[in-house]
Structures are given as C-alpha cells and as structure tokens.
Amino acid sequence: MKLLLSLSAILFSFSLIAQDYPSALADRECIELDLSESVQVENSHFIYRWDFGDGTVNYGVIASHCYDSLGTFRASLSIQDPISGTEFEEEYAQTIQIVPAVELMIELDKQSEVYNLKAMLDGEGISNTSFFWTVNDQYFVSNQLTDLPLEDGDNVRVLARFDFQGEETLLAKQITIGSINQ
C-alpha cells in the first residue's frame, strides 16, 4: 500500500507541474551568416549589424546565432558607414524557420459514450518514454487510455518523460473535451 501512495504522490506532482512544460521542443538550431566573400577591402570599416529576429543582435562580417524556440524569424543585416554616418537598414534579410524536433500529441477517438486516448511523441532520437495522465482528478501511467466516460469541458493532461539526445526531457499537453482546438 505504501508503494501505491508514493506512486500517486509522484503522479500528483507531475499533474500540477505539467502545464509548465511546452508540448514541443526545438533542437538548438544554429546558423552562420557570412559576408566575408562579398565585402571589399575599402568597406572593411563599415559596421555590420545582424538582427536575428528573436531579440538577439550581433556585429561583424560573420555572425553566428542559435535559436532556442520554435517559430519563424526574420534575420536582417543593416550596414553603417561610421565615417559618413550613412546607414543602410535591412540590406539583406532571410527568413529562418525553426520546426519541432519532438512534439507531444494526443490522439482522441470517441466510441459511443466513451473516449479512447493515445499519447505519442513525434521525433527522432527518443528513448525511455513514460506517459503520465491526469483525467478528472484520476491518474494513469500508460501511453493509451481506453473507455473513459468523458464529457464536454473535461480537461485531459498528459506529461511525457523521455530521453532526448542523452538528456531527460519533459513535455506536456492539455486538451479540453469538446473544444474546437483539440
């Protein structure tokens, strides 16, 4: 009985913090923007300012940056001539798209008056996966739940714990039964 209580406590703590985790993660996507082949010697005094579209700014003929989040970013280059004070804003721009490396998904299937739920991780390099569910104040450990009597408005939350690229990682996802955005 003591083991059961301890497992419930672990699941309860996971359910409380599950909302604090994203449902997808990106690899650190790194880029290098290099103008060294096209900058002429007489323009070497120019100031090259790179804006990576996520609040990061870097200076130089060559600039590197790693994105930490998912999304579409617009990297742009502005050039300033410190001698004349002339500035050329956004002389070059490139769209950078960072897509999920791993995404947590919930498959929902309604059979008559009950629901079947399945949790899945989509991505490469995933191992040692466990799924922890919270459904109407009940806790389950499985990748699949069947014959659940759910109603519109019920919240279902799943926490996935897994190894990704050698590190323990957590992702969470919550859905509301009957919601348009499931």
Folded structure, characterized:
This protein is mainly beta and 182 residues long. It folds into 2 domains: 2-23 and 102-176, Immunoglobulins (Immunoglobulin-like), CATH 2.60.40; 29-98, Immunoglobulins (Immunoglobulin-like), CATH 2.60.40. 9% of the residues lie in helices and 57% in strands. The chain contains 1 helix and 14 strands. The chain has one helix at residues 2-17, and strands at residues 24-25, 29-34, 47-51, 57-59, 62-67, 71-80, 87-98, 102-111, 114-123, 126-135, 138-141, 144-148, 155-164, 167-176. The strands form 4 sheets. The protein has a 4-stranded antiparallel β-sheet, with no helix packed on it. A 4-stranded antiparallel β-sheet has the order 4-3-6-7, with no helix packed on it. A hairpin with a 5-residue loop joins strand 3 (47-51) and strand 4. The longest helix has 16 residues, at 2-17. 17% of the residues are buried. Residues 1-19 have low confidence and may be disordered.
List the helices and strands and how they pair.
Elements: H1 2-17, E1 24-25, E2 29-34, E3 47-51, E4 57-59, E5 62-67, E6 71-80, E7 87-98, E8 102-111, E9 114-123, E10 126-135, E11 138-141, E12 144-148, E13 155-164, E14 167-176
Question: Order of helices and strands, N to C?
Answer: HEEEEEEEEEEEEEE
Total number of strands: 14
CATH architecture of the largest domain: Sandwich
Helix content: under 10%
From the 3D structure, determine the CATH topology of the largest domain. Immunoglobulin-like
Give me the secondary-structure category: mainly beta
CATH superfamily of the largest domain: Immunoglobulins
The residue-averaged pLDDT reads 82
Strand neighbour order, sheet with most strands: 1-8-9-12
